[in-house]
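User: Hey, my collaborator sent me this sequence without any context and asked if I could get a structure. I don't really work with proteins. Can you help?
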Amino acid sequence: MKNQLKRMLSIVLLGIGVGFFCMLFQQDRLLFQTGLLDAYTISPIKYQEINQKILLGYVLKQRLLCSLMISLLATTYLGIAVSYLYLLLYGGALGLMTAAALLRYGLKGLLFIFMSMFPHQFVLFPSFMLLSCVACSLCRYLYFQDVSLHFAGKKRNILMKYMMLLLICNAVVIIGCYIESYVNPQMLKMVLKFF
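Assistant: No problem. I've predicted the 3D structure and written it out in structure-token form, which is a compact way to encode the shape of the chain:
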């Protein structure tokens, strides 16, 4: 599992690098023509009153759909590929947004990116990393017979342990969604006062 986590982290870092360099080399098209993170985009967020229940519904739909998709596809041949692809896209999006914030606002942009991710990503990121590791291990167990499994016992017991791990990861994703909906907007509004 430790090697799997290292592999997953390296995929996220690769995605961050690709996203960062895509934004640097295509900033005219990706940043200035789209208006990404410009004053027109950020101003309404400063003054708009956020309905946290509606935000929670939206965030749950987005995040839980991804985590359930990874969980379900872990039981197919696509489990490993989907887990890797999700983490690569996650890293790519983070790299794009970080580069965009740096290009638009300099060091203030880093503060904006950090606060837009704090504290919910400190719950969501580890849960998606663990979810992806469990999904890869389950896929290997079902289809590629990974002999380095740490679970002992019958196949049914092993599958139940995997299902419990997937369920726990999805429950943590739900907790992260609550944090993203109820805590993050107030913190982000405090930071946006400087923009």
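In plain terms: The two ends are 43 Å apart (CA to CA). You can pass these tokens on to your collaborator as they are.
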